[in-house]
Amino acid sequence: MNKATILTLLCLSLAFGFAFAQSTSEPIDLGASDLPIASIDNIFIPFANPSLLGTTHARGVGWAQVIVDRKLQKHYWLIANMEGISYLYENNERTSNHTIGWGTEVFPAHLMPNLYMGTAYKWTNDKYAEGALRSGVTYRPLNAMSFAMTWDNPHKAAPQYRFGAAIRPLALATFVKDHRVELSADFNYVKDSQTAYEFQKPTLGFNTELLNGIGIGGTYNMENEGAMLNFSISTGKRSIGSFTRVQENANTYSVGYVHLTDQAFAPFLGLNPKHWYSMRMPGEIVTYKSAKYSFGPFQIFEGKQKSIEQVIAEITQAKNDPTIEGILFTNPSFATSFALMQELLGALKDFKSAGKKVEFYFDNISNGGYIFAASIADNIYLNPMGTVDLRGLSITSPYLKSLLDSMGIDVLNFRSHKYKTAANMFSETEMTPAEREVYDSILQSIMDNVIAQISSGRGERFGKPVKDIIDEGPYFLAKDAHDAGLVDKLIYQDELEKTIKESAGFSRKKSVLEDYRDYSWAKPKEKQIAVIYATGNIVMGKGAAGKMIAHDTTVKLIRAARNNKDYKGIILRVDSGGGSAQASDIILRELQLAQSKNKKPVVVSMTGVAGSGGYYIACGADRIIAQPTTITGSIGVVGLAFNLERLMEKIRVNWSTVKKGENADFGSLYRAWSEEEKALMEYYIEEVYEDFVRKVDAGRKNLSLEEVHQFAQGRVWTGEQAKAIGLIDDLGGLDKAIEHMRELTGIKGKIKLVDATTSCKKGVVISMKSNPLAVFPGFDLVNDVSSEYIELYELWKNFRDENAMMLSPLNNASVKF
Prior knowledge:
Elements (H helix, E strand, L loop, with lengths): L2 H18 L24 H4 L11 E9 L2 E11 L3 E8 L2 E11 L9 E10 L7 E11 L2 E9 L6 E8 L13 E11 L5 E3 L3 E6 L5 E8 L4 E10 L2 E9 L6 E8 L14 E4 L3 E5 L6 E3 L2 E5 L2 E3 H13 L3 E7 L2 E3 L2 H15 L4 E6 L4 H10 L2 E4 L11 E2 L5 H7 L2 E6 L8 H4 L5 H26 L7 H6 L6 H6 L5 E2 L5 H9 L4 E2 L15 E10 L1 E3 L8 E3 H13 L3 E10 L1 E3 H16 L5 E10 L1 H4 L6 E4 L4 E3 L4 E6 L1 H6 L24 H25 L5 H7 L4 E3 H7 L4 E2 L2 H12 L4 E6 L8 E5 L10 H21 L5 E3 L7 E2 L1
Parallel strand pairs: 16-21, 16-28, 17-20, 17-22, 19-41, 21-23, 23-24, 24-27, 29-32, 29-40, 30-31, 32-34, 34-35, 34-36, 35-39
Antiparallel strand pairs: 1-2, 1-15, 2-3, 3-4, 4-5, 5-6, 6-7, 7-8, 8-9, 9-10, 9-11, 11-12, 12-13, 13-14, 14-15, 18-19, 25-43, 26-37, 33-42, 36-38
């Protein structure tokens, strides 16, 4: 809305006040006016009922001024309302009044929602000790009903009480948006001249906003036969209005006001201008966003990294925004796992179910970028000189046996089965037949999903099967991509606005979503479910959540959640290729205690990968949910050891040992292992594997022990394959996990997910947009190379003392797309 329109509305609102304003000779006290205490929802909340500062409707800054004889008087208020706190400054000629108010919701929404209490203290000039106190309490059990009480404690005067009630008679009428018809009644309980308390006649009121942004209402005081009329215009993040108090042979005045708030009002008159939401998608989308660096009280986060929940919440907000008719992605460039991409696509499909559009513009399109866009886009636009790097999927692994052999290093790869290939890169010269079999199966399953997604998104625009389209890529010439139906139009970015206007009928764009005002009186009672994020390698000891699954840290999180009576269940979000067998077992034990001792259901929601140890900690859950392309299974055990005897000979280093005990130097690096030592390790690996299988058998009631053995043996599966053989229960993301949790707990009302991982964080949070060292030439190359060594070092540090590991051979970065 332009400035001229706003000025016009301001004039209209003030004109309403001027039309009625006449003279007054007595002081004006807004706190003693006939504002309805049970239904007031504007900037004057702290004057009438400070308990409602616990809602968000008072929030913002404002100005109000008295109008008498159609003239602005030297009597005004400056109002600053924050989250639950208010400061009011009143200036009337030479008198200054100050008021500090406070209000809050008494109980959390999962205990008893919609009960508010608050108080305000008012004093004149510097007479702090002679102030007046107004306190209040409000209860809104239903969206159609509100009850309130306030009591005043003036300095050296008798307390006064006010009781109020309000209803929304059209709350059940679905054709009236936001129930914006309100009727109220307020009763004053005060002392009369005989020093006895009695009820005065009521003040009756009404308020309407049947047309968004136009508020009309009033009250009538039956005791003094005074009336108060109000009128307001609300648009954007501002409200302009006035109210006039009329009483025969008594005070008559108007008060004009302006309210600026950080919450947007519903679109004016219900007129919803159509906008595209320009959604930025740089950086990385992860299961859990953890601090990149931590020191002292400071937590430093990667600015371009977002959790999948953050992105989905953004899409949901856009869906619910009445002014957003489409999401426009311009050169989206983000990294994520295929499973998280599917969760993101699910949110965009939900967005489109509201009749809204999704469109893309690219200068160049990567392989994964095209799979993403083609699966959901209404239209894809490409720069005339751009490329579409559609090429399919691959898994590539290095093999170091020959290198290590030339250095004189022998590798002992103790694997439970031929499919347990996590250590093969050290012990083999090339991909084994078992590895190739598994990788081919995994890629085929993921490729089937890719083909299905692209086919459902735009398969009808191709002149041939999607598989052929992929096999003929990459498309280096934009015209070839267009001719094949991969993109809809070749345009430059400066032509985008005109093009989307032609295709959708609107072209205005927003880069920020509005936080709209919620007019609801009553919030539903919530049932809380704890969400614990288990991401990274599974290790013994302590560690930062989100970077690793350290047994001690993770167990403390689970224990706190299972012992918290507010939580009705636990959702474990797993994104891990496994790690320590012992740490995995300890974590599984704590989850089992939640089920058996605390009687709390556990639902596992797998994201990118939940293999080996990642599957182990999940196997006892009441329900296991995964995306079709989640990498899971890998039920097996591996042990890895190195023998440096030949290397020592090459570098002419001799070792001598004195020992007491036959196996005192068991597993020494400087000598070859004996056959007895190898047999002992093989026995250990076999027993740990058997225990793994028994744990899966105990957790998966739908599978027999023989069936678990059949699907185990270190074999890796996609979520779709795992669902078919019974290793998981259902396909989907966090929303599907919530469905199963609702079924297990019997919760009928609202479920609130509580991040039981992040809630333990304390300190100062800092978002780092980029690495300041990146300005130096060659930094990216050095960073890429060093990160590989850092990753290997972290693996060695985490697992150097582990005899048996539950590691998946595949992780989120294994499948190139």
